[in-house]
Amino acid sequence: MHFIRILNLNLIVLSLLSAQELRVLQDESFDPRRLHEPTLPLLDNSQIYEIVTDLQTPPAMRLPDDSLQVSEKVGYKVQVFATDDYFLADSIYRQVAQVFTGQAVEKVFHLPNYKIRVGNCLTREEAEKLLARAYELRYPDAWIVRTLIQVRERANFY
Questions:
Q1: Which of 21, 25, 47, 158 is the 20 to 30 A CA-CA neighbour of 79?
Q2: Domain containing 140: what range?
């Protein structure tokens, strides 16, 4: 008698489970390539820095409001540190910004690493002097990177 009850219970459960299987047709006419979404401002790391640290642009990166213009040229920077940990990169960034006063310090994200770079050197000789200073300040993994730099030039008004 007990066996018949278990068998009936199993049959009821199986019939309920098979009745649950309803197939819903999905609308596959959606094409994400036609969305034309604006790019995310988070991808340039500026807003990520503001969200995590609750700070605006670091003082070393601010430009004075006078007759200077900034242009990008190919030059050299010294990369002093690289890591995949955002918080470690942020703390090293703050340390480097305090030690390298008067130099531009930036935190760059190239998947999967955050890189801390110093300087905007037009010549290799300037970068080598900055590299020697990085070695003196105990950044043994520092090396020179050829990249785009920001050059401040006096604007010519005619």
A1: 47
A2: 41-55+67-154
Tokens of 56: 């605006």
- Dist CA 116 CA 106 (whole Å): 6
Q: What is the pLDDT of residues 48-99, one digit of tens each?
A: 555 555 455 555 555 455 567 778 888 999 999 999 999 999 999 999 999 9
Task: For residue 111, tell me if it sits in a domain.
Answer: yes
Cα(111)–Cα(132) distance, rounded to whole angstroms?
Answer: 28
User: What tokens appear for 94 in the block?
Assistant: 């703050």
Residue 3 lies in a domain: no
Q: Which residue has the tokens 């340390």?
A: 95
Domain presence at residue 20: no
Tell me the pTM.
0.55
Q: Which residues of 59-89 are buried (b: 16+ CB within 10 A; e: fewer)?
A: eeeeeeeeeeeeeeeebbbbbbbbeeeeeeb
- Statement: residue 114 has pLDDT above 90: yes
Cβ atoms within 10 A of the Cβ of 10, count?
10
Beta strands 113-121; 105-110: pairing state? antiparallel
CATH number for position 74: 3.30.70.1070
